[in-house]
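Why this split exists: single-chain examples teach little about how molecules sit against one another. For that reason, every record in the complexes split bundles all components of an assembly together and asks for one structure covering all of them. Below is a record exactly as it appears in the raw files.
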Amino acid sequence: MSGVPQRAWVEQIMGLPVSVHMRGVDLQGYAVESAVAALYDSLRDADKVFSTYRDDSDLNRWYRGEIGLDAADPAIPEVIALCEDAVGRTRGFFDATVSGRWDPTGLVKGWAVRRAARHLTALTGHGWCVNAGGDVLVYTPDGEPGWRIGIEDPRDPSRILRVIERRDGAVATSGLAHRGAHILNPFSGKPATSVPAVTVTGPDLMWADVYATAAVAQGVAALDWLDEADGYEALMVAPSGLLRVTPGWNSSNSQPESSALRAVADVSPSPDPHG
Amino acid sequence: MRRITLWLLSTVAVLVLLFSYRTSTMGAGTTATTGGEADDTTADVSPAADGTKVYKGSTADTRWGPVRVSITVANGKITKVEVPTYPNGNRRDQEINAYALPILTQETVDAQSARIDTVSGATVTSDGYIESLQAALDAAGL
């Protein structure tokens, strides 16, 4: 671990554990405390607007027709537009309408964390790592060591498949661990079960999360469009248990223990796009 | 175990042939030649001093050159998949990079020894958090 002073906060929001780890000086000072507080307030606000569990969330009131979109929190039309964008980017494998009622939850999580983390960018000279239920966003100022992120083994959450080191950007993982087959394939309507886990890295947490979710919904053929997504790389645990990565994964993600794992032949994924 | 090993070799050989198939659909007109060696599962077997065995599959000719796969088996488990012979070194390999690489995990790493700062996994909810690895990491910094 780094020798720089470090402090951590954890709160449970949106049904998720959200932790913030901060490195630097004055970790008990006003600037740091207020930035972290603002991050958590932002997440609580997102929960108030989008929670499907709260009767009085703007989302539920809109569903019930009690308020129109113009009267609802402006975050709702913003997220609607992003969900539409997500359908195109993921070739239809992320679709907020898949379960019958429009449900933006899969996108809102990354969107909300991305928005909340903006409160940390005002801190100059501090490195930070936000982890919201497994979605990770980090920042490291020049001269400090980066963050070591362990990718969970979907077959045994106490074990790590790989360690990657990143100075900034997002790491999002989706899969079958913890909640089982909860991701539906929008084309078949059925829960996706073939791919145990996908991890996507890239500049934006919301898109990394959406891409990871869509890739689980689709299966190994998703590596085709993941490869084309600019700035994003993916690691997928295939149904066989083998790991597969997009070609840029190794150069984009520093892997301190890379001697343990070696890349082998280029092979194409199944030609079946709905595979 | 031998049956599984041969199955894996032929599966990998099939995957390599898919690689050839895909190349010919990229429409450059050159027919992908294969050795038709997917049937040849009597691969080389080389026992090593520590009891591991290395099985080398047959060589498949692809439009960019020969590809040969080998797997290492120790104690009944596949510990390594390698391609000792594969095309490299020219511009067309950029097209090869459009395909994903299968990577065999060796031992997964125990989180204690991994010295990680945080875990990225499928969503752990607040219910599961207390027992999670991430909780231990957060507690260390609190």
